[in-house]
């Protein structure tokens, strides 16, 4: 059973008071739950958030399923999101993604055998002038080549 | 090609790393206009903004002063909401503004909030922009400490609070009513207008939604006056604008130029043209939702609202995606149909089903299985998606399809006939049809 840490719980309660409406805390609370559940959200997480926030599960669940940044399945320690949209495609995003998947021996959206990486495609990440690019956690890696991107992954601890 | 240069009006100090922090910002004129504005009559600020001809820089190009004028004339609480959910493919100017000059936006917002008598504002930033969110949070804290936010700002009697709200990955939240739904902690589905947000927005209270660049400009209109601002651009497209140039040019990036700047100078001058042996094929001038221009059209276009509208396209967010002749237009369109199918919020049937069908048909052509009637089918489906939905996403998905298929029809016909691209050397890795759901 998933339970928020005391710190996580306090954060969620603070979000409930932060905005003009309690419901506005649902998006930030989902981020807190996701972080505490190793990067993805399950029905257990929703249940816990519902209990702590006193907001019906269905209302949290429909928000969870609507947005792409809440992960629906297990992801690797490093979630490698390669932008696939037009400006990146024109600069080789498809080759970049294919290279990473091949080198890591994994399909898109799957976790590598060692649990370290998940490669997925993201829609426009607003880095079109420095294409192609990828996002890992909160960091953008820009002006990549297939090789330079793979070197960055190799350097991840 | 004549030497093309930028007009660094908003971006004058962006090369200074210190401009990001409060001290560096103040050293370069920061918060002077807030002091000035707080001594003005709020209506005088609104009049000045109206007179400046400033139009929304997020995409719709609606008069900012006029939008503010739609607020009810009473003391009902109202919100200012900054649209920083920059998601239109090809656009990356707001991210630069927030990362390099967060105080510029904050100052513009406080002045705007004072003008419309709003005591609370939110900056809705797309969830992926961590650096922007961190820069804004730090700057807001600095602004509170310095007395630019909070109670009785600079002794004026005006109170204002500001906060950042993080999105969670949904293009549709860039649509102002979708953004309001999201800020309310709901699915980011747009709402039927009217009532417009200025009358009924966040929590059903009057809400003004303005783009990052738009709000930053307000400071400069107060600094230099509407007449000065109008010296840039044209009568109907006044001021400078940030353009995000990307795609196949040698020097992509954000460039600030006066409106009505020639597209040719943008691509070949500032953008440095193309790699050796390549040449211009097509330009998407205003973000991926804007109808595509052929090379011939692009070469005579100017970057203003009127000219691009006359050409059947639009200025949009100022994102210019340049495509050179090494690319296959069927593949480019398939990239975009995938995007819109992924991003449709699913609320209205013509959009939910239409984006899916467009994506399936284009991918079927791309995989070599296209039928001759598919080209007309694409046009028919796209036509049926226009003007039938709550928000503009459906139209935004239909317009690229109609323009690509009409202007580059030979490439689509060739692909259907031969089962392969007309553009030599284009390699494909078709991923088998449309992407379903998230």
Please provide a written account of the structure:
Chain A is of the alpha+beta class and about 160 residues long. Chain A has helices at about 5-20, 25-35, 45-55, 55-65, 85-90, 95-105, 145-155, and strands at about 80-85, 115-120, 135, 140. Chain A folds into two domains: about 5-65, no CATH class; about 80-155, Glutaredoxin, CATH 3.40.30. In chain A, strand 3 (about 135) and strand 4 (about 140) form a beta hairpin. The longest helix of chain A is centred in the first third of the chain and has 13 residues, at about 5-20. In chain A, about 40% of the residues are buried. By secondary structure, chain B is of the alpha/beta class. Chain B has three domains: about 15-230, NADH-ubiquinone oxidoreductase 51kDa subunit (Rossmann fold, 3-Layer(aba) Sandwich); about 240-320, Ubiquitin-like (UB roll) (Roll); about 330-420, de novo design (two linked rop proteins) (Up-down Bundle). Helix content of chain B is about 40%, strand content about 10%. Chain B has 18 helices and eleven strands. Chain B has helices spanning about 20-25, 30-40, 40-50, 65-70, 95-100, 100-115, 130-145, 175-185, 210-225, 225-230, 265-270, 295-300, 305-310, 330-345, 350-365, 375-385, 395-405, 410-420, and strands at about 80-85, 120-125, 160-165, 205-210, 240-245, 255-260, 260, 280-285, 295, 300-305, 320-325. A five-stranded mixed sheet of chain B has the order 6-5-11-8-9. In chain B, strands 3-2-1-4 form a four-stranded parallel sheet, sandwiched between helices. Chain B has a two-stranded antiparallel sheet with strand order 7-10. In chain B, a hairpin with a 5-residue loop joins strand 5 (about 240-245) and strand 6. The longest helix of chain B is centred in the last third of the chain and has 18 residues, at about 350-365. Chain B is globular. Chains A and B meet through helix 2, helix 4 and helix 5 of A and strand 3, strand 5, strand 11 and helix 14 of B.
